[in-house]
Structure prediction request, 171 residues.
Amino acid sequence: MDSLINRIDRKQVGSDLTAKHGVDQIFQIVISGGIQLILVILDQTDGYIPLKDTAARQEISEKYLEAIVKSLVKERYLQGLRGKSGGYRLTKAPEEYTVGSILRLSEGSLAPVACLEQNPVECRRMAECRTLPMWRKLNTMINDYFDGITLADLVNNVSAMALAGIKLDNK
Prediction:
């Protein structure tokens, strides 16, 4: 297993991504792809939303989203329907999804270094590693933070920002 940072360096998210966005934005897009996908689906009040529409709306490679959808459907976060009016929809209420669980399903471990992965590669220096406590604390902070945010929180935050007149994008 690779740490989150190492995986992102090699992540294949489609050549259109690098053409549309600078290198500094690739990390943000890759890590939030699963969250953005689910939020777009959440915005659809009834019926199913096609993956093609989600990809276009978020300017993310459809191929990349297809990979995310597979794990989300397998874990029953999303339900898919094939055909003309097909697409995807949520299977639970927004309050039942945490950002942490979605990120782990769509991106894998959130561990900042390989030795803290769920199935870590043995490190012969682990016993005397002076930075390991720092990485463990960061790992705990990352997981606690994302596990404490639900989709409902994100929706409510966006609604509150819109009501306050805060512009949500740069377009």
